[in-house]
Amino acid sequence: MQEPLLRIRNLAKQYRRGEQDIPVLTDITLDIMPGDFLALMGPSGSGKSTLLNCIAGIDQADAGEILFRGEDLTQLTESELAAWRSQHVGFIFQFYNLIPVLTAQENVELPLLLTDLSARERRDHAVAALAAVGLADRLDHYPGQLSGGQQQRVAIARAVVADPDLLVADEPTGDLDRASAEEVLTLMERLNAELGKTIVMVTHDPKAAERARKLIHLDKGELWADTAAARAGAREAEPHAAPQTPGP
Which among 170, 177, 114 has a CA at the least distance from the CA of 188? Predict the structure, then answer.
């Protein structure tokens, strides 16, 4: 039987606000398998971004375990976590986080600066990644010369250029119009289906969540499994059209 890529057990996280401890995650237990495409949904303040940050090694939990192929990430130092992230995780953000003074190719090359690749090898990898997201003709364009959807595709190319085991996406379509969002989601589906990339995506968008293979709903720091109830909750979160007034 295939082993989980990430095995999360009894994870808890709280923040201090004045004299009060505010629980954000409560006893989270979850397996993420290689090749999963998992969507995390929930209202604001439900803990979904905190869970994503713990999974990605950005934030440290207060209790519990996060086992990556048997290694407990909660026991690593900050420098060890940084090294682990650089080797195993690719990040896709809502607002792209591209550097304005760098070209698309130079932005994509950034994660490779931490590797032993030569300048020529870094360029070749970046060109191949941009071609894979349909931007082979935009290598020398700066972010300000690209549409929002194109900028997000550059960000996805940057996330996959070092061939990470895990892609984490925080509201990847939140700043895009619907057409651009559909293009980005289709690209993420391809990365999952064709390249076997494991993806964990936080989203408020039910249409984005429907593209995932599994849906997890968080509410007040607790998980709902991938069930009919979670799917129903996602559909209920979708804005409904205003009722039409009958014509004369």
Answer: 170
**Which alpha helices (H) appear in the chain, and where do they start and end?**
48-55, 78-88, 104-109, 119-132, 148-160, 178-195, 206-209, 228-237
Q: What percent of the chain has pLDDT over 90?
A: 74
CA–CA separation, 14 and 20 (whole Å) = 10
Report the distance separating Cα 116 and Cα 18, nearest Å.
Answer: 46
Which strands sit side by side in the sheet containing 89-92, from one edge to the other?
89-92, 166-170, 198-202, 37-41, 214-219, 222-224
The letter for the amino acid at 237 is A
What does each C-alpha distance from 206 to 76, 81, 189, 217 come to in angstroms? 35, 32, 15, 11
> Is the predicted pLDDT of residue 232 greater than 60, yes or no?
no
What pLDDT band is residue 15 in, cutting at 50, 70 and 90?
Answer: confident
Residue-range domains of the chain with CATH: 6-237 (3.40.50.300)
Angle between helices 148-160 and 178-195 (to 10 degrees): 20
Most distant CA pair in the chain, distance = 72
**Closest alpha carbon to 212 in 186, 238, 246:** 186
Q: Which of 123, 198, 193 lies closest to 160, judged by CA?
A: 198
Amino acid at 163: D
For 235, counting Cβ atoms within 10 Å of its Cβ (0-12 exposed, 13-18 middle, 19+ buried), the class is exposed
